[in-house]
Amino acid sequence: MPPMLPARQFSALRLADVLSSCHAAVLGRENALALAVVAKAVVVLVDGLGVSSLRARAGHARYLTSKLTRAGVVDTVFPATTAAAITTLTTGVEPGRHGLVGYRALDTANDRVVNQLSGWDDGMPPETWQRSRTVFERAAADGVPSFTIGPKRYAHSGFTLASLRGALYVPAESISDRFAAARALLDTEPRALVYLYVPELDVAAHAHGWESAKWLAALEALDSAAGRFASGLRRDEGLIVTADHGVLDVPATKHVLFDSVPELVAPVRHIGGDPRCVYLYLDETPGDSEAEAATALAETWREVEGDRAWIFTRAEAVTAGLFGTVDDEVLPRIGDVIVAARKAVAYYDSREPNQSARSMIGQHGSLTDEELRVPVIRDGAFGA
């Protein structure tokens, strides 16, 4: 029987350290990344730029790969998904504390699964569902203005209100326009913490795969814009380019319709997570404790899918520290049983009315190196 959890050593430096260290650097304080003191710091978050993909296309990203060092490879959070990872970057704490523990998670108060990128409503207010103070809010308290630069469509989203609160949102549509907006802020602000979001690579990967011409064009546009921006940095300005997760391509022939095996879904009330990191939330089972029911379902899944997925209970994941410290309020948001793909497969429920997700090629969420390992590239005053 394959191991319940992968035997891997997570990186000492964490995604949670990146923005927090930049904040400290602007204040002239020691920080986890040992960044130099600066007046202005820019953090570029490239959605979906894993280290393995970047290295595989090194000839198309000469600026980024020239700055990527062995020490500049870190692990993102588990699950390796945008809602969890970006919120960890912007709060400096792991998912078990900020509460965005996956793409779709259980809202127990309303007995429903909610999409934590686009499913915000009055029943899931972003101001309280995301439980941690952001780095931007802490910077404001220290007298340091913060700015978020991204596409206009995200300016007032629930996710922005949850995870980017405390920063002034500056809309800019293209990658080059966003870097131009960052330069304008650096030219006018005596001190600043700037967060710049690049969704284009993730969008291209989901639709066409990371090995597609569309993804490659987005990478080239990013590399060109980032290189030009870095060349104009002044002595008191620091730059970090990082990512929330990596991506691997999963063809439709590798989709697993798990509901075709009745035993895998018989005791399940709700299904959440991602196709590569499925959360199974159980119905109450008369006569069995919650832990016994979860263990029994996990064993059933291991018998059927144990050769291509890591399968573990919530209790096992929390004990292993996969979510960091998990606060009591957050615990029920995590699946009773978690199915994390380790082969190039994606898990789907064919009973789901909306099957549009099955058109995705680029996938992420699990514990493989392709999904977990992301760059932390330093330049300007941070690269010295």
TrEMBL record:
Signal peptide: none annotated. GO terms for molecular function: hydrolase activity. It comes from the Bacteria. InterPro entries: Alkaline_phosphatase_core_sf, Phosphodiest/P_Trfase. This is Alkaline phosphatase family protein. It comes from Cryobacterium zhongshanensis. The lineage of its organism: Bacteria, Bacillati, Actinomycetota, Actinomycetes, Micrococcales.
